[in-house]
Structure prediction request, 319 residues.
Amino acid sequence: MSKKHRKLPRNTDYTAYLHPRWWPTWLGIGTMWFVAQLPLRLQWWLGRMAGLLTLKFGKSRRHITETNIRLCFPELNEQQRNALVRNSFMANGIGLMEVGIGWFRDTAKLKKITNIHGLDHFNEALERGKGILLVGAHFSTLEMGGSLSTEYIKSDVMQRDHNNPLMNAVMTRRRERRYGKVLGARDLRGLLRCLKQNRAVWYATDQDYGRKDIVFAPFFGIPAGTITATSRIAERSGCVVMPFSHFRHDDKPGYDIYFHPPLENFPSGDDLEDATRINAFIEQEIRKAPDQYLWMHRRFKTRPDPDDPGFYKKRQKKG
Prediction:
């Protein structure tokens, strides 16, 4: 990969990716497009199989998932935890299939199998004229939940740019067809401009971004590094902070999208209190469908004590 493309991760001009070195990526994108045209039930089956393969061969991701679930659900026995790990990999496999659906299919055709909840909360919040920060989490339905929500509301989105410039170009262009604006994950100025224009912006806070500008708020009873940016954004913009969640049906293809009541008295002036409220909401929603959450992320990587080795170091086998 040339330095030119590393410096231009947002180069969305497809003519910049005609060199043979991009052909494997084009092949992968073409495969995504093809699979996205298949019946939804077949895609879900393929997703489950992909998840099981990842479970078998993705030892690092399996270890992270097992550790997170052991920490967050101490009330489960070993058999129940193993089942949740397995179901989580299958759910995230389905989520991988749904990326193609979100990018390459007309999600308006999926409205008949989508239930929308709390749309009145969104419309009332928009009338305040200060913008809406849709605070969500990294569920396996992330792509579908966002894509389907744009069938009912107008919103912008923040994204972490893909490391592969071509994949990032496709992702950005396809999302630009659904969302108003696609902002970079660190583009807080752009985010504030959107809120000032009374727009809604999808924003996730539930990953470990390191030690900068965080507090350690409880998440499933464990101190977790949680960014304070949500409070800063709400303070500077006066926007409405609205929790947002989305789930996949278990028994048959279908989705539920929830716009929850806005957080009152937010920000409170206490970063830890604010972060605790956000984490409590995310935990509440995870417990509704724990297998659909992205447990493969090292959520508890940053510890209050910098010298703490953490939870993810693999245990040495005895003997």
About this structure: The chain has eleven helices and nine strands. The first helix runs from residue 3 to 7. Strands lie at 114-117, 132-136, 156-159, 182-184, 200-204, 214-219, 222-227, 240-248, 255-259.
